[in-house]
Amino acid sequence: MKSTTRITLMVVIAAIVSFSFIKSEEHIAEMEAVKKVVYDSYINGAFNELNAEAMEKGFHKDFSIFTPKGEEISKYPIADWIAGVKKKKANGYDQNDKKNIWDHNFANIDITGKAAQVKVELKNQGNHVYTDYLSLLKFDSGWKIVAKVYHKHEK
């Protein structure tokens, strides 16, 4: 192989490796941004801290929880959920009570462009209670949770 061919090949390989590194850094940054929204707005906002302000920041205004009811779909909109969180907190919610502490595990995070899907496992007092699937979209203002479907585990 001629030395110019070797040099060209080395430059091409270096460019591919550099591009892959940049893409993976961008992907890691997006994964961290998605995790932060889910952690702040969902895990702490909706569960551990009952922080309605954090929920309003991280959930899209058109968000709903979708639940099957026979062959129909029941929708629980974010406005109703936030109202319930505010009411529960106003009625003496004790953040240190063990029954109000939810452990979580990010089982999977999948991002393609401006769409993401997060699988979160929620445990309460050592029991696996929910497996949640959160859909997110990236808007000009950042990532927002737009929908949830879930499975409630039997004890």
Automatic annotation (TrEMBL):
Any single Pfam family the record assigns to this protein: Lumazine_bd_2
InterPro entries: FrzH/put_lumazine-bd, NTF2-like_dom_sf
Protein name: Putative lumazine-binding
Protein's organism: Ekhidna lutea
Phylogenetic placement of the source organism: Bacteria, Pseudomonadati, Bacteroidota, Cytophagia, Cytophagales
